[in-house]
Structures are given as C-alpha cells and as structure tokens.
Amino acid sequence: MASEQRESIIFKTGVVGIVANVLLASFKAVVGLSVNSIAMVLDAVNNLSDVLSSVVTIVGTKIAGKKPDKKHPMGHGRVEYLSEMIVAAIILYAGATALIESVKKIIAPEQADYNKVSLAVIGIAIAVKIFLGLYVKKQGVRTNSELLKASGSDALFDALLSSAVLASAIIYIVTDISLEAYVSVLISGFIIKAGFTMIAGAVDEMLGHRVEGEIIRNIKEIVTQIDGVHGAYDIILHNYGPEHYLGSLHVEVDDTMTAAQFDALTRDIEEEVYCKTKVILTAVGLYSRNTGDDSQLAVRSEITRLVMSHENIIQMHGFYIDEKRKRITFDIIIDFDDEDREALYSHILEDVRKAAPGYDIRITLDRDVSDIE
C-alpha cells in the first residue's frame, strides 16, 4: 500500500473516531450528570480520552509521513511509536482520574436516578462502540497501523465496560442495590491496564524486537528463487516506522562467480526484494560455496552432520573450505534458550577440529535475530 493511501485511510478513520466519540461523550456526560451516575460520567471521560487518542493518531501519522530530510535521512516513521506513547499517557491519566473519583464515591456514596433515557443512551453507546471498534480495527489491519489496531481494540473494550455500566443500572433499578461505584473502579482498572499495555508495545518497537517470520520468509523465498543463489542467511531488518524497513543479508553463491557477476546479482536481489516487499536492502554480503571435488562435499556433509547433532543448534550456514590457506569457515546459530551458548560453541569448535585435523577452523556465532529457523 502506498504511503499516501495509508495516511489517507488513517486520517479518515481518525476523523470517524473523533466524531463518534465526541457525540458519545456529550450524550453520556449530559445524561450521567442529570441522573447523578458517576459510572456514566467516567464512561464519557473515557470517550474524551479516545478523542484525544484519535487526534494524536492523525497528527502522528501526518508527521511520520513527512519525507526524509538532512536531519532525518531515514524518514520520520518512528514518530508513530512516539504517538503510541502519548496516547498511552492520555489513557493512563484518564484511568487514574477515574479511579480517584470512583474511590471517592465508594467512601461517600451518592445514589443514581436512572431512567429510560439513560438506559437507552448506554445501549446506543454500546452498539456504536462495537461498530466503531470493528471498523477501526479492520482499517488498522489494512494499513498495518498499530495505533489503529489498539484504538479498535480499545473501542471494543469500551463496549464491554459500557455493558457493565448498563448491567449495574439494571441491577439498581430491580434490586435497589447500587454497584456503579465499584463498576467504575473496575472500568478505571481496565483503562489503566490498557495504557500500560500500549506503552509496553511502543517501547518494544523502539527497542527493536524479533522481526515477524512472515517478512523473513518472503525475503528468503524471493532471494533463493533468483538464479545463482544457493541460500539466503543473516537477514537483519531495521524498523524506521510501520512498513519502513531497511536491511541486509548474505547470499551463498558459487566460488567461481566473478565480481562483475556478483555485482549484477546484488542489484537483481535488491530490486526484487524492494518491488515485492518494499524492504530496502542496504547491503548484500557473500558466502562462497565450494565447487571443487567430491572430497570437499564429503567434508562439508560430515561437519554439517556433526554440528547439527548438537542440541539447540538452529542453523548452520556459510560453509567454505579454503584449501590454499587450509581453513574451514562457517556460521552457526544457537538458540537463546540454551543455558550456556558460549560453552556449546566451544564444544562444537573442539569437535570440528578433531573431525578436520590440519585445518584452521573459524566458526562465527550468529545471533538468532529473526523469528524463523
């Protein structure tokens, strides 16, 4: 999806959210105050926080969509993650304020005076929130916007909380037992939890986490289908905002390939990957593959069997025998779940040295940075 189209969809979805939440907040606040319902008033405050969230989403997306400049050569995409933090702060403030007011109502209770109008408003609000939540979440999936996905989930959750308010009102009318202050505490707790969850997600994105397996699989499939490539490894992607990845990888090619041929191959790889995934490859590294006699293939097969027989070895790649320098090089990936990765690495190195005496063994311990084996 083009960035302009994505920005337009997020903007329109944000406007729909603003209009819907302003209307809901207005009706809930008026009716809540008229019937002296703290739960309805807090529900209205929650809707106002959703309005601010939608505004931040629109502004953040606009800034994130700005073209790269001298100061920010990689663009402004990460602003969306900062926007998530701001939205989370708004949600936390709304939740904390609601919690304080709810506790006050428990200490000094005031009876609400529900009527048919107030019950109708709550019922309509539930229906609107369900529709809004499904719509916003669908647009979030369509545009790969974590902000919209979170807003959609929040709206659906609001519908659940409004249902709790409606249930407490019905219970009060039928049994004369007031539970709304306690329901308000429950609402406040869920609002605060949602804020912390959003902060955790934004921090996770900014710190850098494992890239989704689907993206890595797509890139590997694209690259390995290009003539001359025997394998694609060490794929590292750097996130500069939703749908904005820069990355690098290594490819395994025959050791007879010339520099000119590899240069042409590199350009083909970069073009294919960008056209099909929009990922910009900034570097394509090289692993040589032996094309010599059968004895080299036999050594490769034996060492591969030996290495992969160890537990917690995810992958072995980049194997090459340099007969001139009597050197064998390859990379291994050890699962992070292994209790002592360095000890396992040393053990494998010693085993390979025994299996291939007379060779200088060089093993690189790679990081398991992608969510795929």
* Sheet with most strands: strand arrangement: 1-2-3
The counted number of beta strands is: 6
Choose one word for the global shape.
elongated
Mean pLDDT: 81
| Assigned CATH architecture of the largest domain | Up-down Bundle
Overall description:
By secondary structure, the chain is an alpha/beta fold. The chain has helices at residues 3-34, 38-64, 79-107, 116-143, 146-175, 180-207, 213-224, 259-277, 294-308, 341-355; strands spanning 231-239, 245-254, 280-289, 313-322, 327-334, 360-366. It folds into 2 domains: 3-207, Alpha-lytic protease prodomain-like; 213-366, Alpha-Beta Plaits. The strands form 2 sheets. It has a 3-stranded mixed β-sheet with strand order 1-2-3, with helices on one face. The chain has a 3-stranded mixed β-sheet with strand order 4-5-6, with helices on one face. Helix 1 (3-34) packs antiparallel against helix 4 (116-143) and helix 2 (38-64) runs antiparallel to helix 3.
Please outline what is shown here:
The chain is α/β, with parallel strands linked by helices and 373 residues long. The chain has helices at residues 3-34, 38-64, 79-107, 116-143, 146-175, 180-207, 213-224, 259-277, 294-308, 341-355, and strands at 231-239, 245-254, 280-289, 313-322, 327-334, 360-366.
